[in-house]
């Protein structure tokens, strides 16, 4: 019998442990050591004990599949530059106003509709940008303009858990402008912390290289 990771679940390995993100329930979690060992055996298609099969059936982490399909989060492109470390440009008032509206909507949507629905809105915008035959690789100018507008907006708009709504708002605005960026959610342990950022190829748009490297990606959209 083969198993696939159930829909809405992603995972990564950080600091020797497996960390999971369950989008439908908006939560991160780790497994107890015996359960993690069983998960690893199933992941590597070596469920050597009857208990492993019972775990697979009862844990809610898997679905039965014709072909095994269990893989950790794919790694995004390795970033080599950050726009936050480049010379900053002055944000235009119109860009700041639009970014403020995007920040307010992203923050509200995360509270009311949850993470899965909020990310689905970005995926829709990115799919349209990617499928646009007129879409071309942008210069850094529109990315820099968006990053500058975000920085200016965040000085004016106060909200909790700043990195996720900020990254979501930025990613959606860029996708709607025809720039299909990646939205990355990362985690680390000891102590646990989650983070989010936006990148375009090898360029970080709204985070510094030194900070992003502290986190292991658990979801890349």
Strand content: 15-25%
Most strands sheet: 5 strands, mixed
Strand tally: 10
What oligomerization state is this entry in? single chain
What are the secondary-structure elements, in order, as H or E? EEEEHHEEHHHHEEEHE
Low-confidence stretches: none
Overall pLDDT metric: 87
Estimate the helix proportion, in percent.
40-55%
Describe this structure in words.
The chain is 42% helix and 21% strand. The longest helix has 20 residues, at 93-112. The chain starts with a strand and ends with a strand. It contains seven helices and ten strands. The protein folds into two domains: 2-65, no CATH class; 81-220, no CATH class. With 221 residues, it is α+β, with helices and mostly antiparallel strands. The mean pLDDT is 87. α1 packs across α2 (50-58), α4 runs parallel beside α6 and α5 runs antiparallel to α6. A five-stranded mixed β-sheet has the order 6-9-8-7-10, with helices on one face. A hairpin with a 2-residue loop joins β2 and β3.
Give a brief rundown of this model:
The chain is of the alpha+beta class and 221 residues long. It folds into two domains: 64 residues, no CATH class; 140 residues, no CATH class.
Architecture blueprint of SSEs:
Layout: E1 2-5, E2 9-14, E3 17-22, E4 27-29, H1 33-43, H2 50-58, E5 62-65, E6 81-82, H3 93-112, H4 115-131, H5 140-156, H6 163-176, E7 182-188, E8 193-200, E9 203-204, H7 209-212, E10 216-220
Parallel strand pairs: 6-9
Antiparallel strand pairs: 1-5, 2-3, 3-4, 7-8, 7-10, 8-9
